[in-house]
Amino acid sequence: MRGFNLDGSTPRTPVLIADDLRKSYGKRPALRGLSFALEPGRVLGFLGPNGAGKTTAIRILTTILEPDKGNFSVDGIGSDQPKLVRGRIGVLPESLGLPKHVTALEYLVFYGGLYGLPPNESKASALRLLDDVGLRKRARSLIGSYSRGMRQRLGIARSLINDPAVVFLDEPTLGLDPRGQQDLLALVNRIARDRNVGVVLCSHALSEVETVCDDVVILSLGQVVAKGSVSDVIAQARGNAKRGAGVRIQVPPESTADALERLDGLAFVKAVEAQSDRSGWLRVDLEETQDPGADLRNGNKALSELLAGSVPVMSFETRGGRLGDVFLQLTEGVGG
Questions:
Q1: What is the phi/psi pair of residue 264, to 5°?
Q2: 38 DSSP β-pair partners
Q3: In terms of domains, do 190 and 311 share one?
């Protein structure tokens, strides 16, 4: 099975392969045939609304649950050998319980010992990891004195103590401020590239996935509705959607009525409406066409119409051009 890098680069042997994974709870199917591959050095965004099957899939891939059908492998080790699989993965769960009254160094040395590392080797590895995640100067500080961001960094270090082939990160930026989120995502990207590991990133923040991930798997009601590189998934979704998806235009809230009047009735505008939050954003539905450039041209016409009427334009964007738009499109009404 080949990886997702459709950008012309040479595919490498995947470090994680899932093949037709299925799981039901009683009569309710939670996972309906999950298949994908992840190459080393790449970050895979694992997405889906609540109830999509993400948690079930991650629990299977981290050997907590057994699938009803299908199999997977990590670094060439089959899922029929869960103990060996656990030795080749690292996990940062969403709710990370950390002891408060030990130092970060003591914590990592302890985990290194659990993986069979001799004390000296475990300590050396722990110090290297703390350096990698930017915590070397606080190595001997009690974990209870750490900020939320520092604890997340320590959790990432712990997930790497056994030199895994695949790392699973569940909502790693949850609760962090914007700067903390940015720094942690940069760390995730650096880990994948520098250590040549495959990273599976679960996040509800679609902008994060679009920023840091190379590939994406989108689940809805247990089914895979899209997979591939982020750019390809966006392009495919736009190609499969009806032309004329439309644009969004923001004007000053006090100019909303004037903008609606200027745009309503234009030949290429099917419908226009203002958002209810009085932010000045207008949803403009454009006529359907087979021309992939028509949305932008007609959007420019709409802008020209507003400017000709002295309506200020604060922002403009095409709909369906970002991962968030694709996610909403692909996860609506899937199942059965």
A1: -65, 130
A2: 16
A3: no
Task: Tell which phi-psi region holds residue 171, choosing left (phi > 0), alpha (psi between -120 and 50) or beta.
Answer: left
* 51 occurs within a structural domain: yes
Rounded CA-CA distance 27/228 in Å is 30
A 10 A CB-CB count for 119 gives 10
What is the chain's percent helix, strand, coil content, to nearest 5? Answer: 40, 25, 40
**pLDDT category of residue 90 using cuts at 50, 70 and 90:** very high
SS (H, E, C) 212-245: HCCEEEEEECCEEEEEEEHHHHHHHHHHHCCCCC
What are residue 215's phi and psi, to 5 degrees?
A: -125, 165
Q: Are strands 89-92 and 166-170 parallel, antiparallel or unpaired?
A: parallel
Highest mean pLDDT among 143-157, 177-191, 239-253: 143-157
Q: Quick one: how many helices (H) and strands (E) in the chain?
A: 11, 14
What number of CA atoms fall less than 13 Å from residue 180's CA on the CB side?
13
State the pLDDT confidence band at 100, using cuts at 50, 70 and 90. Answer: very high
CATH number at residue 260: 3.30.70.100
Question: Could you tell me the pTM of the whole model?
Answer: 0.74
Question: How high is the pLDDT of residue 25?
Answer: 94
Tokens at residue 245, please? 């998806």
pLDDT per position as a tens digit, 107-121? 999 999 999 999 999
Domain range for 219 = 16-98+146-238
User: Does residue 66 sit in the same domain as residue 78?
Assistant: yes
Is there a domain that residue 55 lies in? Answer: yes
Number of domains present in the structure of the chain: 2
Contact between 31 and 22 under an 8 Å Cβ cutoff? The reply is yes
- Cα angle at 236 between 8 and 10, to 5 degrees? 15
